[in-house]
Amino acid sequence: MREEALAAIQGAATLDALGGVKTRYLGKNGLVTAQLKTLGSLAPDERRARGAEINALKAELEGAVAEREATLRQEALNAKLASEAIDVTLPGVKLPSGGLHVVTRILYELSDIFESMGYRVVEGREVEDETHNFDALNMPSWHPARDLQDTFWLENGQLLRTHTSNMQVRYMETHEPPLKIVVPGRVYRYEATDATHESMFHQFEGLVVGEGITMADLKGAISEMARAMFGRGARVRFQPSYYPFTEPGADFAIWWDQEQRWLELGGSGMVHPNVFRAVDDLRAAKGLPRVYEGKTGFAFGLGPNRIAMLRYGIPDIRYFYGNDLRFLTQFKGDLSNETPSELPPLPRDTLKETM
Ligand code: DAH
C-alpha cells in the first residue's frame, strides 16, 4: 500500500487529482485510516508495534502529499506567469493623436516672428458691423471699393467680417498710440468657390501707429518677416496699389528663391488720415480723448493660406477646410511624432489679447 500510495501521490497531475488521492488514503474513510481502526482487535504488544508502523506511514504519506501539493502549486503559478507575461520593454502602442492645422502653424509662426519684434497678438470678432468693417476704414457705402468685397450679411444688419482690417478700428478705438499689433483670424467672402477662392479663409493683419512712422518702417517689418519665414536671403518687393484705408497703398511680394519667382503675399500701406479721423470720432462718442489725429502708421494684411500653398505645393485652397485627414496629416499633423523642439513656437499667451 505504501508503494502504491506514494506512486499515486507522485502521479497526481493536478491539485484536484492529488486531493482525490489524499482522500483515498488519508481521509476519514481512507485506507490508512481503516488500518488504524483494525488496531483495537490486536493484542497490546502487537497493537503498539503496528500502531507506530501505521502512524509512520501516515506521516510519510502526509509529507509526500504536502510536497507534491507545493510542487503542483508552483507549476500552476509558473504556467500562469508564463501565459500572462508582459514584456514591459516592448514599445507601447501609439494612439493616433490630433495635431495643429497647417494654417494654424503658419499663423503661430507669423505671430512669433512679430512678437519677437515687440508686436502684440490680438484676436477679434468675426461678426462685425458696417462701421468697423467698412465705414471707419474710409469705405463709405457709396464707395466703389465696397463692391470689391462681397459680404455675408446677417439678418440683424451685421456682417461676417470680410477682412481682419476691422481690428485696426476696434483696437485703436480702445487703445492709445503708440501701438504695434498683429491680428490672425478668419474672414468671410460671399464668392463662388474655386481652387483659389473659399468663402472662409484666413488673414494676418498688422498695424503700427506712433510718432513719425514711415514707409521705411513698413518695409523693414515686412523684410524682417520675410527673412524669418523664408531665410536670410529673402527679398521683398513693393508695388503701388490702392486700398481705401491706406495712402499710399502698396502690394508686397517676396522673392521665393527655391522656385525663382515672386510670390504676391498681401497688401499694405500708410494708414489713411481718414481712418485716424474716424477712429477719433468713435472714441469721442465713447467719451475717450481724440489721440490719433496727427499720428502716422502703417498697416498690412497677408494670406497665410497662400504661404502654405506655395510652401507645400498645395494646389487648391479647398483642401484646407475640407477636414480630410489624408490631407491634414501630411503636415506633421500628428504631434505624437514630433519632439517639442520641432513644433512651431506657440505665441506667448501673456501677450495675447482677445477683443
Ligand atoms: N484688407 C485687405 C484685404 O482684405 C488687405 C490689406 C491691404 C490690409 C492693405 C491692410 C492694408 O492692412 O494696409 O484685401
Topology:
Elements lengths: L1 H10 L3 H12 L4 H7 L6 H40 L18 H15 L3 E4 L3 E2 L1 H4 L25 E2 L5 H9 L4 E10 L11 E11 L4 H16 L5 E6 L4 E11 L4 E11 L1 H13 L10 E7 L1 H9 L12 H4 L24 E2 L1
Parallel strand pairs: 1-4, 1-10
Antiparallel strand pairs: 2-3, 4-5, 5-9, 6-7, 7-8, 8-9
Helix pairs in contact: 1-2, 1-4, 2-4, 5-8, 5-10, 7-9
The structure holds 3,4-dihydroxyphenylalanine (DAH).
Main location: cytoplasm
Family: Belongs to the class-II aminoacyl-tRNA synthetase family. Phe-tRNA synthetase alpha subunit type 1 subfamily.
Enzyme class: ligase
Number of strands: 10
Overall shape: rod-shaped
Task: State the CATH superfamily name of the largest domain.
Answer: Bira Bifunctional Protein, Domain 2
The averaged pLDDT comes out at: 89
The CATH level-2 architecture of the largest domain is identified as 2-Layer Sandwich
Helix/strand order, N-terminal first = HHHHHEEHEHEEHEEEHEHHE
Biggest sheet, spatial arrangement of strands: 6-7-8-9-5-4-1-10
Helix content: 25-40%
Written account of the structure:
- The chain is an alpha+beta fold and 355 residues long.
- The chain has 2 domains: 2-83; 102-328, 2-Layer Sandwich (BirA Bifunctional Protein, domain 2), CATH 3.30.930.10.
- The protein contains 11 helices and 10 strands.
- It has helices spanning 2-11, 15-26, 31-37, 44-83, 102-116, 130-133, 166-174, 215-230, 273-285, 304-312, 325-328, and strands at residues 120-123, 127-128, 159-160, 179-188, 200-210, 236-241, 246-256, 261-271, 296-302, 353-354.
- The strands form 2 sheets. The protein has an 8-stranded mixed β-sheet.
- β6 (236-241) and β7 form a beta hairpin.
- α5 (102-116) packs across α8 (215-230) and α5 (102-116) crosses α10.
- The N and C termini lie far apart (97 Å).
- The chain binds 3,4-dihydroxyphenylalanine.
- 3,4-dihydroxyphenylalanine (DAH) is lined by residues 163, 165, 205, 243, 246, 267-269, 299-301.
- 3,4-dihydroxyphenylalanine (DAH) binds at residues 163, 165, 205, 243, 246, 267-269, 299-301.
- Residues 99-340 form the Aminoacyl-transfer RNA synthetases class-II family profile domain.
- It comes from Deinococcus yavapaiensis KR-236.
- Tetramer of two alpha and two beta subunits.
